[in-house]
Amino acid sequence: MREIWRSARGNRSLLYALAAFTAFYAATAVQSAVAVYFLTYRLHFSERQDSLVFLLGLTLTIAAIAPVSKVAQRFGNPRTLGVCMVAYAVIASGFHFCGPDDTWLFLTLIVLAAIPTAGGVLLTWAMIPDCTEVDVFKTGERGRACTADS
Amino acid sequence: MTLAQQALVALLLWLVGSALSLSGYVADTVQTPSAMWTIRLLMSAGTALCALAAAWAAFRQPMTPQKHAALTAAVEARRRGEPAGPQGFADLL
């Protein structure tokens, strides 16, 4: 642990990558944890419908990875991730306005949320190899395992 | 990254569960207005705030494609035994 924190403290880009990673996964963890309650008690979905919504979201997220990757190659990983996270925040805010009769609004938000979610999953991990190059320059060693375990 | 992710998920699951319990959530029954409000708030504002924090960190990230290219070139130069300074990416160090 001490080695991991020493590595992170001496590498600004890694610190911001860790912060972005942590905050993004916090967002998905909160949403995932409460989504079942939202679907069941707010939208009155059955268990089968809950499962289909999760399947739809995950499938679309996987489908969105390739286009997000293309955009990131053009604009850079951090900037693309930043735009994705702002979009994710706006879309997540929209769930507040979904009532029991707003199934189509909810499904539209799920479809839209797949793009920034793909960006979060893809780009938070993609920023790590870039950051490890800083350690290689400073110490001559590549701490990939150390970084991945932090 | 893996440790941060797992620890975070565990902590947030506990926090979300605690927030729901405090709001009066009871499983398999009609929820109170305060429990419904907490569920909606966590689903929207809770997620949005975390996403905005991620956006802040991403926009503050000092690594750019240009700096990464300069860094990679310097690392390659050092590997070949040539002297290489931090020109173009000094703020990353």
- Main sheet properties of chain A: none
The chain-level mean pLDDT of chain B equals 88
H and E order of chain A: HHHHHH
* Multimeric status of the protein: heterodimer
The pLDDT mean of chain A sits at: 88
Helix content of chain B: 55-70%
Radius of gyration of chain B: 23 Å
Discrete helix count of chain A: 6
What percentage of the residues of chain A does DSSP assign to strands (E)?
under 5%
How much strand content do the residues of chain B show? under 5%
Structure commentary:
The complex is a heterodimer of chains A (150) and B (93). By secondary structure, chain A is mainly alpha-helical. Helix content of chain A is 86%, strand content 0%. In chain A, helix 2 packs antiparallel against helix 5 (103-139) and helix 3 (47-75) crosses helix 5 (103-139). The longest helix of chain A is centred in the last third of the chain and has 37 residues, at 103-139. Chain A is elongated, with a radius of gyration of 18 Å. Chain B folds into 2 domains: 1-60; 62-93, no CATH class. Chain B has helices at residues 2-22, 33-60, 65-79. In chain B, 30% of the residues are buried. Chain B has 3 helices and no strands. In chain B, helix 1 (2-22) runs antiparallel to helix 2 (33-60). Chain B is an all-alpha fold and 93 residues long. The model of chain B has no long low-confidence stretch (mean pLDDT 88). The chains are: A mainly alpha (150), B mainly alpha (93). At the A-B interface, helix 2, helix 4, helix 5 and helix 6 of A face helix 1, helix 2 and helix 3 of B.
